[in-house]
Amino acid sequence: MLIPALSDSADSAFCANSTINLSTCRDLSAALTISTLDRLPAKLYELACRPRRLIVVPPKLPCKIRRRTYDCKAECYRTIWQGACLTGRRVGPNVEAGVRMEAVRLGIVGCGVIGRVHLHAARTSPLTDVVAVADLRADAAREAAEEFGVPAAYDSAGPLLGDPHVEAVVLAMPACSRTEVALQAFANGKHVLTEKPVAMNAAEVERMIAAKGDLVAGCCSSRFRFFESADVATRFLATDALGQLRVIRLRALAPATTPPRSDPPAWRLMKSLNGGGILVNWGCYDLDYLLGITGWSLEPRLALAQTWTVPEQFQSHVAEGSDAETHVAALVLCEGGTALTLERAEYMASRSEEAWQLAGEKGSLHLRMLPDHSKSIVHDDSGTERGVFSETVWEGGEDPAPVHVRLLEDFASAIRQRRAPKTSLEQALIVQKITDAVYASADEGRAVEIT
User: Fold this and answer.
1) Are 253 and 282 part of one and the same domain?
2) Residue 193: Cβ-neighbour burial (10 angstroms; 0-12, 13-18, 19+)
C-alpha cells in the first residue's frame, strides 16, 4: 500500500505496469506527504486534495498519463493525470523539492455557452476554484451559481471585480464589452484571461497591455497549443530542419449542413458585437497556432485579403442581422520573405477540405491543429541524391475533452509562478494586428501594412 490509513473501500488505478491502491483517508493532508509521493511510480504526475484545494507535485514529471476521479465519503480527492505533452511542465515555484499550490480563486464574467464551459473546466481542475460569477441576466448568473456550486452571483461585472475573494477573472462575454471590463479588472488588481478574439481591434489590446502592470493577462486563442502534437511540431521547427520558411499554408473549409433547429447566437456573425466573423471565431486560433509553433518568430508586414458573407441559399443558417464574413482568404507577407496564406470558411457550397503545411527551403511539415483520435505529423525531407522523401515524426490520438481545463490550468500556474500564460496579451496583439489588416484590406481592396 502506497497511501496509508486505507479503509475497506479501496479502489485501484493502474498507471502503465504499476498499481496504485487508493481509498478514503481520514487525514489526507498527512497521507499525501512529499515522502509518500517520492515512492509513487514516475508516471504519476499530480495528487490533489479537493476540499483543501491544494495540489501536490512530485519531483518526477510524467511521460504519458490518464485521468480518473475518486470521490469518497470522508474526503474527496483525485489523481490528476495530464497528457503526454505536459512533460516538463512546472506547477509551483519548486518542482524539484515538491510543493503545494493553492488553487486560484476565479470569477467568471458571462454565464452563456462559453462561460459555462469555463465553469465546468474550473470545477474539474484542482488548480482553480470559482468563487463568483456575473452576468447581466441575473437569472443566468443565479442558475450557473446553483448548478456549479459557486458561492456568489452578481448581475454585473462591477461587484464581482470588487469582490476581495476573487483573485483572477475569465471574461466570457461578447468581445464588444471585454476591454472595458478588463481595464476595470486590472484597476482592481485582478489577473485576466480573456476569451477570443482578444478585443475588437489592436488599439483596445494596447490599452489593456498599458493597464495590466505586473498582473498576469492572456487570451484563450492558445487552446489548441496544449496538445502533444503542437509541442512536437514546436520542437521540430526549432531544429531548423525545414531551413528558411517560404510558405505557411492553411486551408480549412466547412460545408453547410441542414438548417439549425434552434436560433443561432446573434453575436457570432455580427461585427458590432464580435468584431468580425469566421476570422475572429476560428482564424484567431489558426494564427495563434501557426505563430506559436514557429516560436512567435514571424514578423508580419503586409496583408492582402478578401472576405465573403454567407451564401444566399444558407441565410437561414445564421442569425438575422448577421453582417460578418463566413469566408476569408488572406496572404500575409512576413519579414524575411515568409508568406502565410490562410483560407478559412464555413457554410460553404463545397465539400469539407483541410490542409496545413509549413514549407521551407530544405523540407516541409504537414500537420493538423484540431485534436483527433488519429493524427500524424509528416516531414518531407530532401537530398541531392534521393530527392524528396517523407517520414512520420509523430502519430497518435488526442482526446479533445481536456482542452478547456488545460487552458485554465496554464492561467492558474502562470499566476502562481508569476510568468506569462501560453498566449500573452503581447502575443495576442500580433494576432489582432494581422486580423485588423486583413479586414482593412478586404474593405479597401488593397494591400495593407501591418505596423
Assistant:
1) yes
2) buried
Output the CA torsion sign for 243, 249, 250, 253. Answer: negative
Three-state SS at 79: strand
What are the residues whose beta carbons fall under 8 Å from the beta carbon of 336, sequence distance 6 or more?
Answer: 244, 299
Peptide bond into 93 cis (omega under 30): no
**pTM exceeds 0.85:** no
Closest by CA to 431, choosing from 308, 322, 330, is 330
The total of other beta-carbon atoms located within 10 Å of residue 5's CB is 14
Domain identity same for 158 and 130: yes
Quick one: 382 and 289 in the same domain? yes
Q: Hey, is 80 helix, strand or coil? A: strand
Side-chain-facing half-sphere of 244: CA atoms under 13 Å: 8
Q: Write the DSSP symbol of residue 277.
A: S
- Which of 222-226, 260-264, 298-302, 369-373 has the lowest average pLDDT? 260-264
The verdict on 46 and 72 lying in the same domain is yes
Structural domain boundaries enclosing 116: 104-220
Whether 6 is in a domain gets the answer: no
Same domain flag for 231 and 215: no
Domain contains 5: no
Distance CA 32, CA 152 (A): 31
Tracing cell 451564401 back to the chain, one arrives at 311
Supply 413's cell numbers. 500556474
Q: Do residues 261 and 276 both lie within one domain?
A: yes
The whole-angstrom separation of Cα 357 and Cα 176 is: 33
Q: Specify if 4 maps to a domain.
A: no
Q: Using one digit for the tens of pLDDT, what is the confidence trace for 384-416?
A: 999 999 999 999 999 998 999 999 999 999 999
The domain that holds 122 is classified in CATH as 3.40.50.720
Q: Angle 129-133-139 (CA atoms, 0-180°, nearest 5)?
A: 140
Residues 195-251: tens digit of each pLDDT: 999 999 999 999 999 999 999 999 999 999 999 999 999 999 999 999 999 999 999
Please indicate, yes or no, whether residues 293 and 173 belong to a single structural domain of this protein.
no
Binning the chain into helix, strand and coil, the percentages to the nearest 5 are 35, 30, 40
Higher pLDDT, 339 or 59: 339
What's CA 405's distance to the chain center, in Å? 8
pLDDT at residue 99 in the model: 57
Span 346-379, pLDDT tens digits = 999 999 999 999 999 999 999 999 999 999 999 9
DSSP string, 104-125: EEEEEE--SHHHHHHHHHHHH-
